[in-house]
Amino acid sequence: MATQYVWTKCTDKQHKIVLKSEFIYAMWHWGRARGGSQIAIEVRTSFVGDGANMELIFKGEKSKKFGSLKEKVFANRYRGIVELPDNFEIGEDIWFEVKFPKQGIKGESNRIPAYPKPIMNSLSWNQEIAHRGDVLKLTGEFSKIEPHADCTVTIYEYDRDGSHDKIIDIPTSLKGTSLELLWEFEYHEDTDEIPTQEEMERVGGAYNPPEYFFVVDFDGCKFGTEQESGILGF
Known about the structure:
Blueprint: E1 22-28, E2 33-34, E3 38-46, E4 52-60, E5 64-73, E6 77-83, E7 92-100, E8 105-108, E9 112-115, E10 119-125, E11 135-143, E12 150-157, E13 165-173, E14 178-184, H1 197-202, E15 211-218, E16 221-223, E17 232-233
Parallel strand pairs: 2-9
Antiparallel strand pairs: 1-3, 3-6, 4-5, 4-7, 7-8, 7-9, 10-11, 11-14, 12-13, 12-15, 15-16, 15-17
C-alpha cells in the first residue's frame, strides 16, 4: 500500500517536500498461464514520474528466467501483454520481478500455475451436413496436456472474407485428454430470406449455404482458427 501523506505545516509559506517513490503491486490478469499464449500484466506505483524506466524479469519455479522486458511507466501504471514460451512443466509456478533502477525500488508479482502448450492431434465434426435439430458431436484429441483440462469451445459461422460470426461459447472440460461435446444445431434466421440458386444466377453469383467451424481455447491458447475442424454445412 502506498504511503499516506498528512500535511501539518502552515499554508502561508513555501515548503520543499520530497515524495517517496514506491512500488504498490504487480499482477497477472489471469489465475493461470498456458505456454504459447498471451497474458495481460499490470504494475502500479506511486510517485515514480511519467516515463520512468522499468525492468521486468519473468521467472518460473522450474523454468528459471524465461524472459525480460524494459518498459516505461506513465501515470504510475503499466499494462501490457506478455507472450509466454511453450515449455512450462505442468503446474509450475511463475511470477515476474519489477525493478526501477533510477528510483531504487523493486517488487514482485503474484504467483500463478503454468502449463505447457498443448498439441492438437485432431478436431472434427461427426457429420458434414447439419439439419435443424440435429445433435452434433464435436471431438478432438490432444497431447501434452493435463487430464480433464478446462477449455472453451467457440462455434463460428464461416465467412470466406474472414469476418467469421461467433455463434456460441461453450465452457467444457476434456475427458482425459479428449474433447467430446454434443451441440444441438439450430438455425435461427428466416430460411425464406435465403436466395435460391436461380435468384443468385440473375446477379452473376452462386448460392453458398451457411457453414460452421469450431475453435478450442485453453487459457488463450487456441486451436482450430484455420478451420482444422472441417466445415459443417447447413
